[in-house]
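Now for a chain:

_____
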Amino acid sequence: MRAFNIVFVPLALAGITLVHAGPIAYGLCQTGCNAVAVACYAGAGLVFGTVVAAPAAPAAAITCNVALGTCSATCATVALLAPTP
């Protein structure tokens, strides 16, 4: 019984210190970014996902894409490293 306690306690403590919000927080963050991108496109009179390559894309679509990229990068650096409450 004593050996079980010696092994179990360090494993339990290691699990507590290594827990992160990870995929759930990241998914929620990305969903918010995508919702804003769709609204940005709609505000420019475009439909998200239907604009073709960059040389032919309107400036508004490129601006929305840059904002989406910035938001997505922020999610990757913040939400994946956020501790679980």
Summary: Helices lie at 2-17, 22-43, 59-78. The chain has three helices and no strands.
